[in-house]
Amino acid sequence: MVRLITHNILACHAKGCTQNNFPLQFKDASIELKEQEFNPDFLRNFLSRLEWKALVDTARELGDTSLPLEMPEMIDDEFLKNLHHVLLEIHVEEGAMICPNCGHSYPISNGIPNMLLAEHEIG
Amino acid sequence: MIPTPDLSHLTRRDYESVYEPAEDTFILLDALEQDADELRNMQPSISLEIGSGSGCVSSFIGTILGPSNTLYLATDINERAASCTARTGRQNNIPIEPIIANLVAPLRSRLRHAVDILVFNPPYVPTFESEAEDAQTTRNIQGAWAGGANGMQVTDLLLEQVDDLLSSQGRFYLVAVKQNDVPAIQERMRQRFNLRSDVVLQRRAGREHLLILRFQR
Ligand SMILES: C[S@@+](CC[C@H](N)C(=O)[O-])C[C@H]1O[C@@H](n2cnc3c(N)ncnc32)[C@H](O)[C@@H]1O
Ligand SMILES: [Zn+2]
């Protein structure tokens, strides 16, 4: 289950690829929605760890427009519920993640991303 | 008592390619259980296990902290291990995110000083260096134990990155055996990174003298 919370943490690490290597772009993503227990404290704590623009852009690419382009100053329950759904309930089960810089493709199979590189691609 | 994770879904076949929990796994669980209250009080946002194998340890951490309180990331170089980790998470209702990766390679840049709980039960058995290198490239069951010179070939690579990963309150739990030269590890981490450490548990299991090291700022 590659959820957007995890996608928000993965970057390309191919040899020489150190800039513009995040966020990876989903390709041919097949998505499942799975309900998760709502935990506002966890979300509040996690906000500072997020790359907001990467999250919003990725959610929009996957068809979810519930998050505002700027992180709001007032964190209310409605916002947290939307954030909860985007971060934790959208699961990418199949597809790939493509590096915006070098084009490397990281496959996702059965919900598990394969981030390994071949010997000659390791920096 | 925190219940040991349910592993009844894993079969002999799984354990042909994925490390079956053994004494080293269980001493690590015991060390985590011993710290359970402190770990809960930290309100950790991110737990990261490297080399999660069956997924037993990450599920146990999830049971200590609660499924929705923390993000549980787990890497393994062996893709079958990653799939066992996913299944064990589901079996125990802990949403673990398995990632097929070498140590923390794809996570490093985004997890700078962000990991609250870092755990590694590495391949710690001293072997010929070529054996460890082979295991690291074939990514099979051998990679679960083949540790090269002093059993430190893989662990050494991670030790260089621990300081970068740990949050200000972060802790790193490492499984080691006596042949790894634990005092030297502790001294190096203190001198190079100013990370203090304690041996929080040790025990003899058959021929192995197992220790759990806990590092923090
Ligand atoms: C001793 S087993 C521990 C498995 C499990 N954590 C446990 O305690 O039962 C070591 C694990 O580390 C994995 N491993 C070995 N080298 C690795 C590397 N470079 N990156 C990630 N995982 C690695 C192995 O595939 C194996 O699953
Ligand atoms: Zn790249």
From TrEMBL, chain A:
Pfam families: Trm112p (PF03966). SUPFAM superfamilies: Trm112p-like. InterPro entries: Trm112, Trm112-like. It comes from the Eukaryota. Belongs to the TRM112 family. This is Trm112p-domain-containing protein.
From TrEMBL, chain B:
Keywords: Methyltransferase, S-adenosyl-L-methionine, Transferase. InterPro entries: DNA_methylase_N6_adenine_CS (IPR002052), Euk-Arch_PrmC-MTase (IPR052190), PrmC-related (IPR004557), SAM-dependent_MTases_sf (IPR029063). It comes from the Eukaryota. The keyword ATP-binding does not apply. The keyword Methyltransferase applies. Signal peptide: none annotated. NCBIfam families: hemK_rel_arch. PANTHER family: METHYLTRANSFERASE N6AMT1. Belongs to the eukaryotic/archaeal PrmC-related family. This is Methyltransferase small domain-containing protein. It comes from Somion occarium.
